[in-house]
Sequence to fold (267 residues):
Amino acid sequence: MNEEIIRMEHITKRFPLGGGRMLTAVDDITFSVRRGETFGIVGESGSGKSTLARILTRLEEPTAGRILFRGQDVTGLSGEALRQHRRSVQMVFQDPSTALDPKLRIQDILCEPLLNFGLIRSRDVPAKARELLRLVNLPEDFAGRYPHHMSGGQRQRVAIARALALEPELIILDEATSALDVSVQAHIIALLRTLQQEKHLTYLFICHDLYLADQFCDRILVMKQGREVETIRGLREAKSPYAQKLIASVFSVEEGKNKVLPPELFQ
Fold:
């Protein structure tokens, strides 16, 4: 876990607001993620977490700074070079209802990336879809279903399977469990842990739930208004008043609110 797979150096992102004004969504952020690690990014809504993820996947261009992937500067990639880079960095979004095309059957959703890269032929789609469904513990006959015939947790498993189809090295999970209820969330996290061990994956886990991040992540970057507050290995290490305030606002041992998911579900 010592090798850096991704490094973001002095990343800044500004958006024009009109009238010469600018919104700084991300302000001089630097961090690295090691191979095989689960690196968390937490903070309140509007803290810049998702903007940072979109920059990393090159869905947004940084205003300043650079992105290193396996030591290579990928900040300026374009065309086919950028397309090939995206095979190695995949993303799972918050709401699978909007991330999955409702007009496509599950087998076509799963295999579309593989067809786009010429990695399989059309006749291979049914078999490959069944393989990917097994990977995320879904019945093979789901291949012929449409997304609206599935539950939220099942759709998110499909989204995870699609992200895995290209065998990426890094998967960005952008609030990927926040739309799910607590029990389904726990099972998805358990699945992600298993897949990480089996596939030697690296995760960038973005969420607003500090206690979920504490259970799941090796290190956690705490953000506020686009800036880094601190990077910690667990909630017990939090030293900044802001991180401590966030912890206090979402959990109270005395009152029994927002209880932490059972640790055994994450092992």
Observations:
- Confidence is low (pLDDT under 50) at residues 252-267.
